Amino acid sequence: VTQPSFPSPTIGVFDSGFGGLTVLRALIARAPQARYAFIGDTARLPYGSKSRRTIARYAAQSARFLVEEQGADYLVIACNTASALALDDIKEAVPSSVSVIGVIEPGADAAHAASTTRDVLVIATDATVRSHAYAAACQARGLRALEKACPLLVPLVEEGWVTSTLNDPLPAQAAPAPRPLAVTAEVVRIYLDELLADAASQGLNPDTLVLGCTHYPLLKPVIERALPPGTKIIDSAESTAHQQVMLLCRDLAPPPQATETDPVLRFFATDSVEKFERLGSRFLGRPVGNVQLVDLGG
Ligand code: DGL
After folding, report:
1. Cα 136–123–130 angle (5° rounding)?
2. Using CA atoms, how far apart are residues 73 and 266, in angstroms rounded to an integer?
3. For residue 150, which of 212, 234, 85, 227 has the smallest C-alpha distance?
4. Average pLDDT for residues 77-93, to the nearest whole number?
5. What is the CA(13)–ligand 1 centre distance, in A?
6. What is the DSSP annotation of 168-189?
7. pLDDT band with cut points at 50, 70 and 90 for residue 174
8. Has residue 138 got a pLDDT over 90?
9. How far apart, in Å, are the Cα atoms of 174 and each of 137, 147, 184?
10. More confident residue, 37 or 31
11. Fewest CB atoms within 10 A around its CB: which of 193, 257, 277, 283?
12. Contact by Cβ (8 Å): 154, 46
Protein backbone atom coordinates (compact mmCIF):
# COMPACT_ATOMS: atom_id res chain seq x y z
CA VAL A 1 0.00 0.00 0.00
CA THR A 2 1.43 3.34 -1.02
CA GLN A 3 1.98 6.05 1.54
CA PRO A 4 -0.24 9.09 1.17
CA SER A 5 1.35 12.04 -0.57
CA PHE A 6 -1.38 14.54 0.25
CA PRO A 7 -1.16 16.99 3.14
CA SER A 8 -3.64 17.29 6.03
CA PRO A 9 -6.52 17.36 6.57
CA THR A 10 -7.56 13.97 5.39
CA ILE A 11 -10.93 12.49 6.24
CA GLY A 12 -10.87 8.73 6.62
CA VAL A 13 -14.22 7.09 6.00
CA PHE A 14 -14.88 3.51 6.99
CA ASP A 15 -17.68 1.05 6.33
CA SER A 16 -18.08 -2.69 6.35
CA GLY A 17 -18.87 -2.47 2.65
CA PHE A 18 -20.20 -0.02 0.09
CA GLY A 19 -23.03 1.57 2.08
CA GLY A 20 -20.70 4.13 3.66
CA LEU A 21 -20.15 5.59 0.21
CA THR A 22 -23.53 7.30 0.77
CA VAL A 23 -21.86 9.15 3.66
CA LEU A 24 -18.82 9.95 1.51
CA ARG A 25 -21.14 11.25 -1.19
CA ALA A 26 -22.80 13.60 1.30
CA LEU A 27 -19.39 14.69 2.62
CA ILE A 28 -18.08 15.46 -0.87
CA ALA A 29 -21.18 17.53 -1.57
CA ARG A 30 -20.43 19.66 1.48
CA ALA A 31 -16.62 19.70 1.47
CA PRO A 32 -15.41 18.94 -2.06
CA GLN A 33 -11.96 20.36 -1.34
CA ALA A 34 -11.12 17.88 1.43
CA ARG A 35 -9.05 14.76 0.84
CA TYR A 36 -10.75 11.46 1.43
CA ALA A 37 -9.59 7.91 2.01
CA PHE A 38 -12.40 5.34 2.09
CA ILE A 39 -12.09 1.72 3.13
CA GLY A 40 -14.81 -0.88 2.73
CA ASP A 41 -14.10 -4.07 4.67
CA THR A 42 -15.92 -6.05 2.00
CA ALA A 43 -14.16 -9.34 2.77
CA ARG A 44 -15.78 -9.43 6.20
CA LEU A 45 -19.18 -7.96 5.36
CA PRO A 46 -21.80 -8.25 6.79
CA TYR A 47 -20.98 -6.87 10.22
CA GLY A 48 -24.69 -6.71 11.03
CA SER A 49 -24.96 -10.39 11.94
CA LYS A 50 -21.70 -10.61 13.95
CA SER A 51 -20.90 -10.30 17.64
CA ARG A 52 -19.73 -7.08 19.30
CA ARG A 53 -16.24 -8.44 19.93
CA THR A 54 -15.68 -9.36 16.30
CA ILE A 55 -17.12 -6.10 14.98
CA ALA A 56 -14.88 -4.13 17.38
CA ARG A 57 -11.76 -6.02 16.25
CA TYR A 58 -12.51 -5.55 12.54
CA ALA A 59 -13.46 -1.89 12.91
CA ALA A 60 -10.35 -1.07 14.94
CA GLN A 61 -8.15 -2.57 12.19
CA SER A 62 -9.77 -0.42 9.52
CA ALA A 63 -9.51 2.68 11.71
CA ARG A 64 -5.81 2.08 12.29
CA PHE A 65 -5.26 1.56 8.56
CA LEU A 66 -6.87 4.91 7.77
CA VAL A 67 -4.90 6.77 10.43
CA GLU A 68 -1.53 5.02 10.30
CA GLU A 69 -1.27 4.28 6.58
CA GLN A 70 -3.44 6.97 5.03
CA GLY A 71 -2.76 9.81 7.43
CA ALA A 72 -6.39 10.46 8.37
CA ASP A 73 -6.86 13.37 10.76
CA TYR A 74 -10.59 12.75 11.04
CA LEU A 75 -12.44 9.45 11.03
CA VAL A 76 -16.02 9.03 9.97
CA ILE A 77 -17.44 5.65 10.94
CA ALA A 78 -19.89 5.39 8.07
CA CYS A 79 -21.37 2.13 9.32
CA ASN A 80 -24.21 2.06 11.79
CA THR A 81 -23.26 -1.36 13.08
CA ALA A 82 -19.66 -0.36 13.87
CA SER A 83 -20.83 2.99 15.30
CA ALA A 84 -23.41 1.29 17.51
CA LEU A 85 -21.15 -1.44 18.86
CA ALA A 86 -17.56 -0.32 18.56
CA LEU A 87 -17.19 3.47 18.66
CA ASP A 88 -15.26 3.38 21.94
CA ASP A 89 -12.97 0.60 20.68
CA ILE A 90 -12.27 2.60 17.53
CA LYS A 91 -11.43 5.73 19.55
CA GLU A 92 -9.07 3.67 21.69
CA ALA A 93 -7.35 2.23 18.61
CA VAL A 94 -6.26 5.63 17.26
CA PRO A 95 -4.44 8.61 18.81
CA SER A 96 -6.66 10.98 20.77
CA SER A 97 -5.76 13.77 18.32
CA VAL A 98 -7.93 12.05 15.69
CA SER A 99 -11.57 13.18 15.81
CA VAL A 100 -13.85 10.17 15.46
CA ILE A 101 -17.48 10.60 14.49
CA GLY A 102 -20.06 7.83 14.18
CA VAL A 103 -23.48 7.87 12.56
CA ILE A 104 -25.74 7.18 15.57
CA GLU A 105 -25.56 10.50 17.42
CA PRO A 106 -26.00 12.64 14.27
CA GLY A 107 -28.94 10.43 13.24
CA ALA A 108 -30.57 10.84 16.65
CA ASP A 109 -29.97 14.61 16.53
CA ALA A 110 -31.69 14.79 13.16
CA ALA A 111 -34.61 12.67 14.43
CA HIS A 112 -34.94 15.00 17.40
CA ALA A 113 -35.05 18.01 15.09
CA ALA A 114 -37.61 16.38 12.77
CA SER A 115 -40.12 14.75 15.13
CA THR A 116 -43.00 16.68 16.60
CA THR A 117 -44.80 13.66 18.12
CA ARG A 118 -41.54 12.63 19.90
CA ASP A 119 -42.04 9.04 18.69
CA VAL A 120 -39.64 7.70 16.07
CA LEU A 121 -39.04 4.44 14.24
CA VAL A 122 -35.60 3.05 13.45
CA ILE A 123 -34.72 0.34 10.93
CA ALA A 124 -31.23 -1.17 11.05
CA THR A 125 -29.19 -4.36 11.00
CA ASP A 126 -29.71 -7.05 13.60
CA ALA A 127 -26.56 -6.12 15.55
CA THR A 128 -27.43 -2.42 15.60
CA VAL A 129 -30.93 -3.15 16.89
CA ARG A 130 -29.65 -5.59 19.52
CA SER A 131 -27.29 -2.89 20.81
CA HIS A 132 -30.24 -0.48 21.27
CA ALA A 133 -27.79 2.34 20.53
CA TYR A 134 -30.47 4.31 18.68
CA ALA A 135 -33.07 3.79 21.41
CA ALA A 136 -30.58 5.06 23.99
CA ALA A 137 -29.52 8.05 21.88
CA CYS A 138 -33.16 8.91 21.17
CA GLN A 139 -34.16 8.52 24.81
CA ALA A 140 -31.35 10.89 25.82
CA ARG A 141 -33.06 13.47 23.58
CA GLY A 142 -36.55 12.89 25.00
CA LEU A 143 -37.73 10.68 22.12
CA ARG A 144 -39.31 7.24 22.24
CA ALA A 145 -37.80 4.99 19.58
CA LEU A 146 -39.03 1.66 18.30
CA GLU A 147 -36.30 -0.28 16.48
CA LYS A 148 -36.61 -3.08 13.95
CA ALA A 149 -33.98 -5.31 12.40
CA CYS A 150 -34.40 -5.71 8.62
CA PRO A 151 -31.70 -8.27 7.76
CA LEU A 152 -32.90 -8.90 4.19
CA LEU A 153 -32.37 -5.32 3.06
CA VAL A 154 -28.55 -5.24 2.89
CA PRO A 155 -28.35 -8.30 0.57
CA LEU A 156 -31.04 -6.81 -1.71
CA VAL A 157 -29.08 -3.56 -1.99
CA GLU A 158 -25.80 -5.42 -2.53
CA GLU A 159 -27.51 -7.42 -5.29
CA GLY A 160 -28.42 -4.14 -6.97
CA TRP A 161 -32.17 -4.71 -6.61
CA VAL A 162 -32.81 -1.01 -6.15
CA THR A 163 -33.48 1.94 -8.40
CA SER A 164 -30.36 2.17 -10.51
CA THR A 165 -29.06 5.32 -8.86
CA LEU A 166 -29.86 7.14 -5.63
CA ASN A 167 -31.91 9.77 -7.41
CA ASP A 168 -33.79 7.62 -9.91
CA PRO A 169 -37.55 8.09 -9.66
CA LEU A 170 -39.72 5.07 -8.96
CA PRO A 171 -42.08 3.99 -11.72
CA ALA A 172 -45.43 5.81 -11.44
CA GLN A 173 -47.74 4.12 -8.91
CA ALA A 174 -49.88 2.53 -11.64
CA ALA A 175 -46.95 1.37 -13.79
CA PRO A 176 -45.54 -2.09 -13.08
CA ALA A 177 -42.17 -1.88 -11.31
CA PRO A 178 -39.26 -3.92 -12.74
CA ARG A 179 -39.44 -7.35 -11.07
CA PRO A 180 -36.34 -7.05 -8.84
CA LEU A 181 -37.53 -3.68 -7.59
CA ALA A 182 -41.02 -5.13 -6.99
CA VAL A 183 -39.47 -7.83 -4.79
CA THR A 184 -37.49 -5.25 -2.83
CA ALA A 185 -40.58 -3.06 -2.46
CA GLU A 186 -42.57 -6.02 -1.10
CA VAL A 187 -39.86 -6.92 1.44
CA VAL A 188 -39.68 -3.30 2.58
CA ARG A 189 -43.47 -3.17 2.89
CA ILE A 190 -43.60 -6.32 5.03
CA TYR A 191 -40.94 -5.00 7.44
CA LEU A 192 -42.53 -1.57 7.70
CA ASP A 193 -46.09 -2.92 8.08
CA GLU A 194 -44.86 -5.04 10.99
CA LEU A 195 -43.06 -2.08 12.54
CA LEU A 196 -46.06 0.23 12.15
CA ALA A 197 -48.35 -2.43 13.67
CA ASP A 198 -45.97 -2.83 16.63
CA ALA A 199 -45.86 0.93 17.09
CA ALA A 200 -49.66 1.14 17.10
CA SER A 201 -49.99 -1.71 19.60
CA GLN A 202 -47.58 0.11 21.92
CA GLY A 203 -49.57 3.32 21.67
CA LEU A 204 -46.83 5.17 19.77
CA ASN A 205 -47.58 7.86 17.24
CA PRO A 206 -44.41 7.96 15.09
CA ASP A 207 -43.89 10.73 12.55
CA THR A 208 -40.23 10.01 11.71
CA LEU A 209 -38.25 7.00 10.48
CA VAL A 210 -34.47 6.77 10.88
CA LEU A 211 -32.54 4.85 8.22
CA GLY A 212 -30.15 3.21 10.67
CA CYS A 213 -27.96 1.51 8.09
CA THR A 214 -25.80 3.13 5.46
CA HIS A 215 -27.19 0.82 2.77
CA TYR A 216 -30.74 2.04 3.23
CA PRO A 217 -30.52 5.44 1.50
CA LEU A 218 -30.56 3.47 -1.76
CA LEU A 219 -33.99 2.19 -0.76
CA LYS A 220 -35.38 5.58 0.17
CA PRO A 221 -37.92 5.82 -2.68
CA VAL A 222 -39.43 2.40 -1.87
CA ILE A 223 -39.34 3.07 1.87
CA GLU A 224 -41.11 6.38 1.38
CA ARG A 225 -43.88 4.68 -0.53
CA ALA A 226 -44.43 2.08 2.22
CA LEU A 227 -44.89 4.69 4.97
CA PRO A 228 -47.90 6.80 5.90
CA PRO A 229 -47.79 10.02 3.87
CA GLY A 230 -45.89 12.82 5.56
CA THR A 231 -43.57 10.55 7.57
CA LYS A 232 -40.15 12.18 7.74
CA ILE A 233 -37.18 10.03 6.76
CA ILE A 234 -33.84 10.64 8.44
CA ASP A 235 -30.83 9.60 6.45
CA SER A 236 -28.04 9.17 8.99
CA ALA A 237 -25.51 9.53 6.15
CA GLU A 238 -26.68 13.08 5.46
CA SER A 239 -26.84 13.99 9.16
CA THR A 240 -23.37 12.60 9.79
CA ALA A 241 -21.82 14.43 6.87
CA HIS A 242 -23.39 17.63 8.09
CA GLN A 243 -22.02 17.13 11.60
CA GLN A 244 -18.55 16.19 10.32
CA VAL A 245 -18.32 19.25 8.15
CA MET A 246 -19.40 21.45 11.07
CA LEU A 247 -16.57 19.87 13.06
CA LEU A 248 -14.09 20.54 10.27
CA CYS A 249 -15.18 24.15 10.02
CA ARG A 250 -14.82 24.56 13.76
CA ASP A 251 -11.35 22.99 13.83
CA LEU A 252 -9.90 24.61 10.75
CA ALA A 253 -9.14 28.24 10.19
CA PRO A 254 -10.06 29.56 7.75
CA PRO A 255 -13.14 27.40 7.05
CA PRO A 256 -12.89 25.42 3.83
CA GLN A 257 -14.04 27.22 0.73
CA ALA A 258 -15.92 25.42 -2.00
CA THR A 259 -13.82 24.91 -5.12
CA GLU A 260 -14.51 23.74 -8.62
CA THR A 261 -11.76 21.11 -8.49
CA ASP A 262 -12.46 17.39 -8.26
CA PRO A 263 -12.15 15.97 -4.76
CA VAL A 264 -9.11 13.83 -3.95
CA LEU A 265 -10.47 10.34 -3.37
CA ARG A 266 -8.68 7.14 -2.46
CA PHE A 267 -10.55 3.87 -2.24
CA PHE A 268 -9.55 0.65 -0.52
CA ALA A 269 -11.37 -2.65 -0.21
CA THR A 270 -10.53 -5.93 1.48
CA ASP A 271 -12.19 -8.04 -1.24
CA SER A 272 -12.95 -7.92 -4.98
CA VAL A 273 -11.83 -4.58 -6.33
CA GLU A 274 -13.88 -5.13 -9.47
CA LYS A 275 -17.12 -5.55 -7.50
CA PHE A 276 -16.31 -2.52 -5.39
CA GLU A 277 -15.84 -0.38 -8.51
CA ARG A 278 -19.02 -1.68 -10.11
CA LEU A 279 -21.36 -1.43 -7.11
CA GLY A 280 -19.63 1.50 -5.46
CA SER A 281 -20.54 3.94 -8.18
CA ARG A 282 -24.24 3.40 -7.40
CA PHE A 283 -23.70 4.46 -3.82
CA LEU A 284 -21.31 7.31 -4.58
CA GLY A 285 -23.18 8.66 -7.59
CA ARG A 286 -19.91 9.03 -9.53
CA PRO A 287 -17.43 6.55 -10.96
CA VAL A 288 -15.37 4.68 -8.39
CA GLY A 289 -11.97 3.84 -9.82
CA ASN A 290 -8.45 2.82 -8.78
CA VAL A 291 -9.63 0.79 -5.82
CA GLN A 292 -6.68 -0.79 -4.02
CA LEU A 293 -6.93 -4.19 -2.40
CA VAL A 294 -5.71 -4.28 1.21
CA ASP A 295 -5.22 -7.10 3.67
CA LEU A 296 -6.08 -6.08 7.21
CA GLY A 297 -5.21 -9.43 8.71
CA GLY A 298 -7.50 -11.85 10.51
N1 DGL B 1 -22.83 -0.90 6.79
C2 DGL B 1 -23.63 -1.63 7.74
C3 DGL B 1 -24.46 -0.67 8.56
O4 DGL B 1 -24.53 0.50 8.28
C5 DGL B 1 -24.55 -2.60 7.05
C6 DGL B 1 -23.84 -3.74 6.39
C7 DGL B 1 -23.33 -4.79 7.33
O8 DGL B 1 -24.12 -5.53 7.94
O9 DGL B 1 -22.11 -4.88 7.46
O10 DGL B 1 -25.05 -1.06 9.53
Report:
1. 50
2. 15
3. 212
4. 96
5. 14
6. PPPPPTTSPPPHHHHHHHHHHH
7. low
8. yes
9. 40, 31, 17
10. 37
11. 257
12. yes
- Residue 280 Cβ < 6 Å to ligand 1: no
Residue 31 has pLDDT above 60, yes or no: yes
Query: Longest Cα pair distance anywhere in the chain, in angstroms?
Result: 57
Q: At what angle do helices 21-30 and 273-284 cross, to 10 degrees?
A: 50
Residues 6+ apart with CB under 8 A from 138: 108, 111, 112, 120, 122, 144, 145
In DSSP terms, 162 is beta-bridged to none
Cα four-point dihedral sign 224, 225, 230, 231: negative
From ligand 1's centre to the CA of 253, what distance in Å?
34
> Does the CB atom of residue 45 touch ligand 1 within 6 A?
yes
Measured between alpha carbons, how far is 153 from 74 in angstroms, rounded to an integer?
A: 29
For all residues of the chain together, what is the average pLDDT? 88
Distance CA 24, CA 38 (A): 8
Please report the atom of ligand 1 found closest to the CA of residue 19: 1
Query: What is the C-alpha separation between 82 and 58, in angstroms, rounded?
Result: 9
Hey, is 243 helix, strand or coil? helix
Q: What digits encode the pLDDT tens for the residues 190-222?
A: 999 999 999 999 999 999 999 999 899 889 999
**Can 249 be counted among the known catalytic residues?**
no
Helix, coil or strand: residue 255: coil
What is the per-residue pLDDT across 222-269, written as a single tens digit (0 to 9) for each?
999 999 999 999 998 788 877 777 777 666 544 445 555 677 899 999
Catalytic status, residue 213 = yes
Contacts for 140 with CB less than 8 Å, ≥ 6 apart: 108
Is the predicted pLDDT of residue 166 greater than 70, yes or no? no
pLDDT greater than 90 at residue 43: yes
